[in-house]
Amino acid sequence: MDTLPLWTRPLSDIPTGEDTLVAAANGTRLCLQVFGEPDAPLQVQLEGYGAQLVNLSRRFCVRLAARGFRVVRLDHRDSGRSQRFPGATYDLRAPAEDVAGLIHVLSKSPAIVCGRSMGGMVAQLSALAHPELVGGLGLFYTAPRTSGGAVPEPGPVLPEDPWVADFVASTMPLAGSGYPYDPVELARWVA
Fold first, then answer.
1. Mean pLDDT throughout 37-56?
2. How far apart are CA 175 and CA 158, in angstroms?
3. C-alpha gyration radius of the chain
4. pLDDT of residue 114
5. What is d(CA 121, CA 71) in angstroms, rounded to the nearest whole number?
6. Would you state the pLDDT for residue 157?
7. How far is 30 from 182, CA to CA, in rounded Å?
8. Taken in order 125, 139, 65, 1, is the CA torsion positive or negative?
9. Which of 40, 38, 2, 33 is nearest to 18 (CA)?
10. Cα separation values, 44 from 76, 118, 121, 155, Å
11. pTM greater than 0.85
12. Residues 6+ apart with CB under 8 A from 76
């Protein structure tokens, strides 16, 4: 994994859809991508445990931006291209503070925070701790969270080819017959 330089220019100048490393107000460096106009209402999209920002469809982010939002998808701490905290122990309040810190530097108004799985728990904790920064929640296949909860240690890093094959094999049955996945397209997206 190559290291991104920390973005030091105005945050309104972040190029659309490019990996950018931004320092949140709490100091955590988060890799993110933005879509939409800088002055549009902010919508933060959070994935689940260990998932990277690319797990959320780029097309989905572009469509949300076309509806008038500034959409941010990001890698949580210790995932993707965001800052690593080797050997650190923390609970879900830490990534919730990262999200609040990111909203603080990106927007003058409260953001809508949407989270899937663990990202939904992080979104809830962000809203509970910082209601002035979170104006709305979108929660998908998640659980209620009122306390931090421990974050498990990251699993081993697998070589790309076996990981992609395992992901495709485990994901194909989830699509159902109404909207089947194309296994070749899914493998390309996952890679």
1. 93
2. 24
3. 16
4. 97
5. 19
6. 67
7. 31
8. positive
9. 33
10. 12, 14, 14, 26
11. no
12. 30, 46, 47, 82, 95, 98, 119, 122
Host H or E run for residue 73: strand 70-74
**Chain centroid, CA 21 distance in Å:** 13
Amino acid (one-letter) located at 39: D
Segment 109-130 shows an average pLDDT of 95
Q: Which has the closest alpha carbon to 130: 105, 106, 151, 99? A: 99
Beta strand 134-140 pairing with 111-116: parallel
115, 138 Cβ separation under 8 angstroms? yes
pLDDT in tens, 142-179: 888 666 666 656 566 677 788 788 878 877 777 777 77
Residue 70 dihedral angles phi and psi, to the nearest 5°: -100, 105
| Residue appearing with tokens 């990202």 | 119
Q: Which two tokens stand for residue 124?
A: 């809830």
10-15: long-range contacts at Cβ-Cβ below 8 A with a sequence spacing of 24 or more?
A: 11/38, 11/105, 11/106, 12/38, 12/39
Measured at the alpha carbon of residue 120, what is the angle toward residues 117 and 139, in degrees to the nearest 5?
100
User: In whole angstroms, what is the distance from residue 45 CA to residue 121 CA?
Assistant: 12
